Amino acid sequence: MTALTHLDAKGAAHMVDVGEKTPTKREAIAEARVQTRPEVVAMISAGKIPKGDVLATARIAGIMAAKKTPELIPLCHPLALEKITIEFDCDATSGVITLQARCSLHGKTGVEMEAMTAASVAALTLYDMCKAVDPAMVIGPIALCEKSGGKNGHWIAPTTNSTRSTD
């Protein structure tokens, strides 16, 4: 099998050839955090943000972004994603919203970039819908928490403050 690299023999960037790889079940989980004021999280949870249902809109934006990852990230393979979920944990006490994006498929390449893109865009959408209420919101960190499938098997980030379930 050819080495999996984004550089060809001449050192030029190219899309990795995954043609000889065996399709496997692949899944990735990424998280993003949004820090805002506690009262803003309470408003979001109660559906009282003037622009509408923030969490539903951010969920749709994250799902749409995952599907568009190869259009946004150079050299990413176009993938037929089988499942994309975006979940939220709203902690009004700390003013933190944790977004978890999970992407999966049966394929020849992983879905880490799709999960990271989904989490990022969902967080940005949340910011966009709430910036009039709190322009000082902070997004981050955004991180890959877990991935499975392929020859490297199952990987979990060594240090994560994840709120994700392990189902």
TrEMBL record:
<feature type="binding site">
    <location>
        <begin position="75"/>
        <end position="77"/>
    </location>
    <ligand>
        <name>substrate</name>
    </ligand>
</feature>
<feature type="active site">
    <location>
        <position position="128"/>
    </location>
</feature>
<dbReference type="InterPro" id="IPR047594">
    <property type="entry name" value="MoaC_bact/euk"/>
</dbReference>
<dbReference type="InterPro" id="IPR023045">
    <property type="entry name" value="MoaC"/>
</dbReference>
<dbReference type="InterPro" id="IPR050105">
    <property type="entry name" value="MoCo_biosynth_MoaA/MoaC"/>
</dbReference>
<comment type="subunit">
    <text>Homohexamer; trimer of dimers.</text>
</comment>
<comment type="function">
    <text>Catalyzes the conversion of (8S)-3',8-cyclo-7,8-dihydroguanosine 5'-triphosphate to cyclic pyranopterin monophosphate (cPMP).</text>
</comment>
<comment type="similarity">
    <text>Belongs to the MoaC family.</text>
</comment>
<dbReference type="InterPro" id="IPR002820">
    <property type="entry name" value="Mopterin_CF_biosynth-C_dom"/>
</dbReference>
<comment type="pathway">
    <text>Cofactor biosynthesis; molybdopterin biosynthesis.</text>
</comment>
<keyword id="KW-0501">Molybdenum cofactor biosynthesis</keyword>
<dbReference type="Pfam" id="PF01967">
    <property type="entry name" value="MoaC"/>
</dbReference>
<dbReference type="InterPro" id="IPR036522">
    <property type="entry name" value="MoaC_sf"/>
</dbReference>
<dbReference type="GO" id="GO:0006777">
    <property type="term" value="P:Mo-molybdopterin cofactor biosynthetic process"/>
</dbReference>
<protein>
    <recommendedName>
        <fullName>Cyclic pyranopterin monophosphate synthase</fullName>
        <ecNumber>4.6.1.17</ecNumber>
    </recommendedName>
</protein>
<dbReference type="GO" id="GO:0061799">
    <property type="term" value="F:cyclic pyranopterin monophosphate synthase activity"/>
</dbReference>
<keyword id="KW-0456">Lyase</keyword>
<feature type="binding site">
    <location>
        <begin position="113"/>
        <end position="114"/>
    </location>
    <ligand>
        <name>substrate</name>
    </ligand>
</feature>
<feature type="domain" description="Molybdopterin cofactor biosynthesis C (MoaC)">
    <location>
        <begin position="15"/>
        <end position="150"/>
    </location>
</feature>
